[in-house]
Amino acid sequence: MLEKNMALEELCLEENHLQDEGVCSLAEGLKRNSALKVLKLSNNCVTYVGAEALLQALERNDTILEVWLRGNAFSPEETEQLSRRDARLLL
What we know:
Blueprint: E1 10-12, H1 20-30, E2 38-40, H2 48-59, E3 66-68, H3 76-85, E4 89-90
Parallel strand pairs: 1-2, 2-3, 3-4
Helix pairs in contact: 1-2
C-alpha cells in the first residue's frame, strides 16, 4: 500500500502491537515510496530484525526524515548501534 500512496507524509502506528513481520512489510513499501516523511513506530514489539529491514529501506529512500522507534525491544547495545547507522532512526 505504501508504494502506491504518494500523498501520505506522516504515518503514526504507535502502540499497535506491531511486530517484526508487520514492520518488514512496511519496509518493503518504503523502498518505493517517495512521499512519506515521518513514520512513527514507537511502543510496539519491534526487534533488531525489524529495525534492520527499516535500515535497508532507508538506504533506498531519501524522502523519509524520521522513523520513531522508541519503546521497542532493543537492548542498549542495539540502540547504540542502530543510532550510529542512520540518524533518521529516533530511538
